[in-house]
């Protein structure tokens, strides 16, 4: 899962932004370096090291499209254990950053206007998807997801609420198949529905219910012990 967040001061003002006005237009900040591109790298890296020390399966971090927006990645993990490895670093955020006087918001749209929102894109695969001709199983899962769009929207959302879409290297789609997966015909797909403030257990649970258990309907099936 790819957790995006936005840095703020304790006064609620966006970290690094001018007190009156706005920074330069978004986009040059994405995966950027330098004091004018990456705001707060010192405490972002402190958080990363704390996660490694705590045993979190954290695998990377980068600046995002909007200034003072960052992302960290966790995984791969099996099933709902992904939820633990996402929520623990979110807790560590607040503990580590007390020393820096900053906070993180997981608001999906913390800045009004033409500024990027924040999501928690989720990469999903099964053993069959990772093997030769696994694209067939990816496409089957996407077909199932297309029929359960409203169910997944109630569990989590940042992409279009009403319409389902999928495509190779399409970052505006509900489901994105990475370029390399389209070429190699195997790998994973990215569910771009989840918002930054999603419940990771609800996200992983919904994907399992739809893609592996082939459930249909508006609510998850209640299994008996």
UniProtKB/TrEMBL annotation:
Its main location: cytoplasm. Its EC number is 6.3.1.2. It comes from the Eukaryota. Signal peptide: none annotated. SMART domains: Gln-synt_C. Keywords: ATP-binding, Cytoplasm, Ligase, Metal-binding, Nucleotide-binding. Belongs to the glutamine synthetase family. One of its GO terms (molecular function) is ATP binding. One of its GO terms (cellular component) is cytoplasm. The keyword Magnesium does not apply. It holds the Pfam family Gln-synt_C. One of its GO terms (biological process) is glutamine biosynthetic process. This is Glutamine synthetase. InterPro entries: Gln_synth/guanido_kin_cat_dom (IPR014746), Gln_synth_cat_dom (IPR008146), Gln_synth_gly_rich_site (IPR027303), Glutamine_Synthetase (IPR050292). Residues 1-225 form the GS catalytic domain. It is found in: Cytoplasm.
């Amino acid at each position: 899962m790819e957790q995006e967040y936005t840095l703020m001061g304790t006064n609620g003002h966006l970290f690094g932004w001018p007190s009156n006005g706005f920074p330069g237009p978004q986009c040059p900040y994405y995966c950027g370096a330098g004091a004018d591109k990456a705001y707060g790298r010192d405490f972002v890296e402190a958080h990363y090291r704390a996660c490694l020390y705590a045993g979190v399966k954290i695998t990377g971090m980068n600046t995002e499209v909007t200034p003072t927006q960052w992302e960290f990645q966790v995984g791969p993990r099996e099933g709902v254990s992904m939820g633990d490895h996402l929520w623990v670093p979110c807790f560590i955020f607040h503990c580590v950053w007390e020393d820096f006087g900053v906070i993180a918001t997981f608001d999906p749209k913390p800045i009004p206007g033409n500024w990027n929102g924040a999501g928690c894109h989720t990469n999903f695969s099964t053993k069959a998807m990772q093997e030769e001709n696994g694209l067939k199983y990816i496409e089957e899962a996407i077909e199932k997801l297309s029929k359960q769009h409203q169910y997944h929207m109630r569990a989590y959302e940042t992409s279009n609420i009403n319409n389902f879409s999928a495509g190779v290297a399409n970052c505006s789609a509900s489901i994105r198949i990475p370029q390399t997966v389209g070429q190699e015909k195997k790998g994973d797909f990215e569910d771009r529905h989840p918002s930054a403030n999603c419940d990771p257990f609800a996200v992983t649970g919904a994907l399992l219910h739809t893609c592996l258990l082939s459930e249909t309907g508006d609510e998850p099936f209640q299994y008996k012990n």
